[in-house]
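Q: Argininosuccinate synthase, please. Structure only.
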Amino acid sequence: MKKIVLAYSGGLDTSVIIPWLKENYEGCEVIAVCGDVGQGDETDIVYEKAIKSGASKCYIVDLKEEFVKDCVWPVIKAGAVYEGKYLLGTATARPLIAKALVEVAEKEGAEYICHGATGKGNDQVRFELGVKALNPDIKIIAPWRMWDIKSRDEAIDYAKAHNIEVPVTKKRPYSMDRNVLHLSHEGGDLENPANEPIEDLCLICSSPEKAPDMAEYVSIAFEKGNPISINGVEMSPLELLEKANEIAAKNGVGILDMVENRLVGMKSRGVYETPGGTLLLEAHKALESLTLDRDTLSYKSQVSLKYSELVYDGLWFTPLKGALDAFVETTQETCTGEVKMKLYKGNCHSVAIMSPFSLYSEELATFGEDSIYDQKDAEGFINLFGLPLKVNAKMKAKNNL
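A: Structure for Argininosuccinate synthase:
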């Protein structure tokens, strides 16, 4: 009997996959695995639904704390934002889920891992590269690259024909991915970039128009780049991100509507809700502006760009990702301090920054009188710094260029 471990969410795609596997892999045993990375109430019905749909077992693996500590915090410390906008909410969770799938497959002696990612998306790459990195002998089954179902509407029809309840309808056909970091919305009317998202699309964040009319201030403390407290209250990583979500969401912070470049070559449009992640990332950037020198901050911006591409592309378990992590950790040695943030109707920015490792010197920067900076020194500096320009200008004049 073939044992197949299925990455199971209880959503449309994975719900129809169980009966499809039973029909197409005669005598197989389907073992559902739900990696709980903060889907909320969605996991409450997963076990019963998986068994009812034909799975022999269903593992619900609590990954929330590990997800925040080992996946979200490193991405925030790296300042990794894909294409300058996307905070990598889906991509950040996939390596950890792949790890859980491999662990269950090894425990159960399964030779196959199955996922519900489409042949057009990024997640197929992320899941499969994670599996290959952790156990290259496990085989992959990807139904969306194999079956005759060609659309989400057809998948809904298939589910109805097999008496499977699914959390989507043809009236609200969005493909959504949720974890403690974000909620994404794709598909349906969003597929046309000319369409403004419907008014009630967001399920976590208040719209900026409906956010409170008074600004809210929040203080976030960091230790070596890791967020450790909000408003003076120390919390576990999971508790802290959940608190940040609560504060930012009610103020309309973290809503992103973007067209992005998928790894597989096409552009896609999605709406992302990442309230707490947006708040923490902006606070972290503000702290780094105080604690990192100019060259390190500049070079780190290049590392951040490459880091975001590696995470987006599913290259989490790679030597380069590990090397960049080591660089980032070095930059965070002095990234300790507190940042006061101001949130107002979708906006989020720092208003005060404090650190024992601050490189800012008020005495040096002041416009008032000081006794440590001799402004005459600037003349020699400018002469030397501008010497190549002067030589080049003389060469051009000599040659009538």
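A: Brief note, in case it's useful. Residues 175-292+334-354 form a domain with the Argininosuccinate synthetase, chain A, domain 2 fold (CATH 3.90.1260.10).
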